[in-house]
Amino acid sequence: MTTPIELFFWPTPNGWKISVALEEMGLPYVIRPVNIGAGEQFAAGFLKISPNNRMPAIADPDGPNGEPISVFESGAILQYLGRKTGQFYPKDERARVTVDEWLFWQMAGVGPMFGQASHFRNYAPKLVDDPAKIEYAVTRYNNEVNRLIGVLNRRLSDRAFVADDYSIADMALYPWVKLAGIFGQDMSTFAHVTAWLDRVAARPGVQRGMAAGAELRRPPPSEEEVKRVAQSLFGQTAASTAEAASKQG
Ligand SMILES: N[C@@H](CCC(=O)N[C@@H](CS)C(=O)NCC(=O)O)C(=O)O
Q1: Cα torsion through 55, 214, 179, 107, rounded to 10
Q2: pTM for the complete prediction?
């Protein structure tokens, strides 16, 4: 029997990229929860495989030459799994470059910008005494999210998936873009993106991947909860993360 891949995971868009990929590729895996609200991303064992104190990460007991390997950063994990299985990551160089372009566009653009938009929409209002202090940031990141969805909408105007065939680039994009509506974007103005979201959502592997770790999900945090985790999650510095790591042991 194949030893399963360990998926270090918490149910967030970056985590779902990998549960979706593992499901789509039919790879056996076990979830190792990393409760980022409780500081588990600073545990020594986790930092050894994910030195940036972020999930997701994987540990594959059957890596290159049959030796174990660990991988952090969701884009690197998707490429690794694509190469390992030969699925959803074409071998043809021209097609692979296209997948890489859109995968890196997600990693460098959509992920960070949607992440900041979410921060200033969902968390920052609970942490500032005066909403005027974050108005500029809210507008800046909402506009950038809007611009990025516009880019995706144009890209999908004449193809079913972002790199033509369904690929790891769609897997990276889907969990974030799915949230655009609840980030306040009017998705009715992005018909091609909406149709793509439906196409991706209809895939059984995507449905299983998005349901992974459902028991770990929490209701939206209260103001007290946000204040409690604010320093450890949003105030991270080199010194504070070193201290958090020493406390977790
Ligand atoms: N670029 C990273 C981002 C991962 C990331 O931001 N993970 C967040 C949850 S969505 C996390 O683990 N946060 C823990 C922390 O902020 O300490 C990736 O794509 O893997």
Answers
A1: 20
A2: 0.96
